[in-house]
Design a protein that fits this description.
heterodimer; A: alpha/beta; Rossmann fold; 2 domains; six-stranded mixed sheet; four-stranded antiparallel sheet; elongated; B: alpha+beta; 11 helices
C-alpha cells in the first residue's frame, strides 16, 4: 500500500519548544483521512510541514513520494486549505480565481467557475465581506481547482456554524467522489470527521495514538459493562483503553479483534467519538505501541 | 506573480504617482516662471554692475515657502515608501495568515518574492527618483545663486541620492517585516533605521568619502559690517565646509575675540593679527562623485538586505 504522507521521527522546534517531536506515521492513499487530536497536539505543525510551509528540525517527511519544499512542481500536486481559511480581504472572488489561474499551471478554470456559480457566490464581492462559510468555500475552491493529488485541510470547519459546516463537508465529499483525490482533514470535532472520513489518525502530544480504517476501528472497539473485575483476569487479546470501576461494577473500554466470549459482560457498540475521546483522555503515562496492534499501520 | 502583486498594489501606486503627477504639473509651471524671473533679475551680470546683494535677495524671495517645503519632501518620500510599501509587503501576509495561501500555490517562494520586489521595489525607486528629478530641476536657478547644494541638508534633497535612499528604505522595511512578522512594529523599525542611517551617513561617512582638504589662513578684517562667515576667505563658492576653527596666536581654539572700544589695534586694523582660521572642507568639484558614492553605498546595503530576505524566506 502506498502512503501519500509518511513521517519518520519528524520533529519541529520553535526556539526551545518542540511543537512536534518524534512523530512517525503513514497516511494511505485514496482515503479521506481524519487527523484528530486535542489542541496543541501538533496537527497544524504536521500539516505545515507536509505542505512545505515549515521545514523539519528533526526526522523526515515525505509527501507523494517527495520531500515537501517550495519546488513549484511539488506545490502543484498538493492542495492546502489553511486554518481559518485565509483569503485576501481586499480582493474579490473573481480576483481570487484569477490569482489561482496565474499561480497554478494546472488550474481548472471550468471547475473553479462552476463551483463558484453553484455556491451562489457573487464574483464581484470582496472576500473580506464574505461570511465564514463562504470564505471557507472559496478557499476550498482555490485548493481543488489547482487539481491536486492530495488535499490537506487544517481545521477548515472549526469556525463555521453547523449548517455551513455541513455544506462545506458536502462540497468536499463531492470533490473526492468526482476527482478521486486523497484528503487529510484535521479537526478536533469528531462529529465532523465521522460524516466524511474513512480513515482515522489520533495524534496526542505528537504521537500517533491510533490509526486505522474507521470501519475496523468501530468493529474492534467495545464497551464492556459487567460485575467488578480485576483487569489482570482479562484475556490477552483484549487491550484495555480505559476502565472505570464502582464498588460492584466495571466499565471497560477495550480493543480486540477477537470475539468477546465471556457471558458476564454486556457488550455495547461504540461510536467514533467514544473511541477518540477514550484515546485522547488515556493517561499520559501510557506509551503508544505497548499493547497489541496499537497504532496499526498497514 | 506580477499580476497578483500589481492587483494588490495598484491603489497605493495610483495615489503616490497621482500625487507626483499633480506636483509635476505645479513644478513645471512655477519652475518655468522661476527661470523667467532668474533671467529677468540680472543676477548673471550683477558682478559687473556691483549690485549682487540686493538683486540676489530680491530673487531669493520668490517662492520661498514652496522652496522650503519642497526640499524635505525628497528626503521624506523614500521613508514613506519604505514604511508603507516595504514594511507591510511580507509582514502583512505573515500577520494576516495569507502567506499560507500564497506560498501553497504552484509558485516557489523565491519567485513570489521576486515578483513582489520587482513591482513594489522599482515603484519605490521610481517615485523618489522622479521627485528628486523634479525638485532638482525646479531648484537649479536657486542652487546656482546659493551655491550651497553640497551642504548637508541640501545634498540629500537633490540629484541621484534619493534613489539610493528609496532602495535602502524599501529593503529595510522588507527585512524588518520578515523578521518582526508584524506590520506596525516593522513600520516603526523602518522609520528609526532610515533616520539612523541618514544621521550616520551625514555625520561620519559622507565627510570622509574622500579625505577632506584642510586650509589655514590668517583671519582678515571683514569688509564692511557683515557677519563672519566661516571659510569665506579660504574657499570657493560651492565648497562644503565640514568644520571651521579659529586659533589664537598661541594655537588654542577660541570662540570669541575681545576687542576693547579704545584698543589701539582698531585704528591700525591689527586686532586680528595672529589669529588663524583652520578649515576642513570638500571642494565643490567633488559634488557629483559624492552623489555617486553615497547612492552606491545605499544601493549596496539595499542589495545585501534583499539578499538576506531571499535567504530568510526560504526558512
Amino acid at each position: 500500500m502506498t502512503a501519500v504522507l509518511q513521517a519518520r521521527g519528524l520533529g519541529k522546534r520553535y526556539r526551545r519548544r518542540w511543537a512536534l517531536s518524534e512523530c512517525t506515521l503513514a497516511i494511505p492513499a485514496g482515503r479521506v483521512v481524519g487527523l484528530v487530536g486535542p489542541n496543541g497536539a501538533g496537527k497544524t505543525t504536521l500539516l505545515h510541514l507536509a505542505v512545505g510551509l515549515l521545514s523539519p528540525s528533526a526526522g523526515a517527511i515525505e509527501v507523494l513520494g517527495g520531500q515537501p519544499d517550495s519546488d513549484p512542481r511539488h506545490l502543484g500536486r498538493v492542495g492546502f486549505v489553511a486554518q481559518e481559511t485565509p483569503t485576501y480581504s481586499a480582493l474579490t472572488v473573481a480576483d481570487h480565481l484569477r490569482l489561482g489561474a496565474h499561480l497554478n499551471p494546472g488550474w481548472d478554470s471550468q471547475l473553479a467557475g462552476s463551483r463558484i456559480e453553484q455556491l451562489g457566490l457573487d464574483p464581484a464581492q470582496r472576500a473580506g465581506k464574505l461570511s465564514g462559510g463562504q470564505r471557507a468555500q472559496l478557499a476550498l475552491t482555490l485548493a481543488i481547482a489547482k487539481r491536486p493529488e492530495l488535499l490537506l485541510l487544517d481545521e477548515p470547519v472549526a469556525s463555521l456554524d453547523p449548517l455551513a459546516r455541513r455544506e462545506f463537508l458536502q462540497g468536499l465529499m463531492e470533490v473526492v467522489a468526482e476527482h478521486g483525490v486523497s484528503v487529510v482533514l484535521s479537526s478536533h470535532l469528531v462529529a465532523d470527521l465521522e460524516r466524511v472520513c474513512d480513515h482515522l489518525v489520533i495524534l496526542v502530544a505528537s504521537r500517533v495514538r491510533l490509526a486505522g480504517d474507521v470501519d475496523d476501528l468501530l468493529a474492534s472497539h467495545h464497551l464492556l459493562i459487567g460485575p467488578r473485575r480485576d483487569l489482570a483476569t482479562l484475556p490477552d487479546n483484549q487491550q484495555v483503553i480505559s476502565a472505570r470501576h464502582t464498588d460492584r461494577q466495571s466499565t471497560l473500554f477495550i480493543r480486540t479483534d477477537a470475539p468477546i466470549l465471556d457471558p458476564s459482560w454486556t457488550v455495547e457498540q461504540v461510536s467514533l467519538e467514544d473511541i477518540v475521546l477514550a484515546y485522547m483522555s488515556q493517561a499520559a503515562g501510557t506509551r503508544p505501541g505497548r499493547g497489541p496492534g496499537l497504532g496499526v499501520q498497514r | 506573480m506580477i499580476w497578483l502583486t500589481w492587483r494588490q498594489f495598484r491603489t497605493q501606486a495610483a495615489v503616490v504617482f497621482g500625487a507626483l503627477a499633480v506636483l509635476a504639473l505645479v513644478l513645471t509651471v512655477t519652475g518655468l516662471h522661476l527661470r523667467h524671473l532668474y533671467d529677468a533679475s540680472g543676477i548673471a551680470t550683477c558682478t559687473t554692475r556691483g549690485d549682487c546683494d540686493p538683486v540676489t535677495s530680491a530673487f531669493m524671495s520668490n517662492y520661498s515657502l514652496l522652496r522650503q517645503l519642497l526640499g524635505p519632501t525628497v528626503l521624506v518620500l523614500p521613508a514613506i515608501t519604505g514604511i508603507f510599501w516595504g514594511a507591510p509587503l511580507v509582514a502583512r501576509e505573515l500577520e494576516s495568515g495569507t502567506y499560507r495561501l500564497a506560498w501553497t500555490q504552484s509558485v516557489s517562494r523565491t519567485r513570489w518574492l521576486t515578483g513582489k520586489l520587482t513591482v513594489v521595489g522599482l515603484a519605490s525607486i521610481a517615485a523618489s527618483g522622479l521627485l528628486s528629478l523634479l525638485v532638482t530641476w525646479w531648484s537649479s536657478p536657486i542652487d546656482r545663486v546659493n551655491a550651497e547644494r553640497f551642504k548637508a541638508d541640501i545634498f540629500n534633497e537633490r540629484g541621484i541620492t534619493p534613489i539610493g535612499y528609496a532602495a535602502f528604505a524599501f529593503a529595510l522595511g522588507l527585512v524588518a517585516g520578515l523578521l518582526i512578522r508584524r506590520t506596525l512594529p516593522a513600520m516603526a523599525t523602518t522609520l528609526v533605521g532610515y533616520i539612523a542611517a541618514q544621521v550616520a551617513v551625514i555625520n561620519w561617512i559622507r565627510p570622509n568619502l574622500r579625505a577632506p582638504l584642510h586650509a589655514t589662513g590668517a583671519l582678515q578684517p571683514l569688509p564692511g559690517a557683515g557677519a563672519f562667515k566661516p571659510g569665506a576667505q579660504l574657499t570657493k563658492p560651492g565648497d562644503w565646509i565640514i568644520s571651521s576653527h579659529i586659533l589664537d596666536a598661541t594655537g588654542h581654539a577660541t570662540n570669541t575675540i575681545r576687542i576693547g572700544p579704545d584698543a589701539g589695534c582698531v585704528t591700525t586694523r591689527t586686532c586680528l593679527a595672529g589669529y588663524r582660521e583652520v578649515l576642513t572642507y570638500q571642494p565643490a568639484g567633488r559634488y557629483w562623485p559624492f552623489q555617486w558614492y553615497e547612492t552606491s553605498i545605499y544601493l549596496s546595503v539595499a542589495l545585501v538586505l534583499v539578499g538576506f530576505t531571499f535567504w530568510l524566506i526560504k526558512r
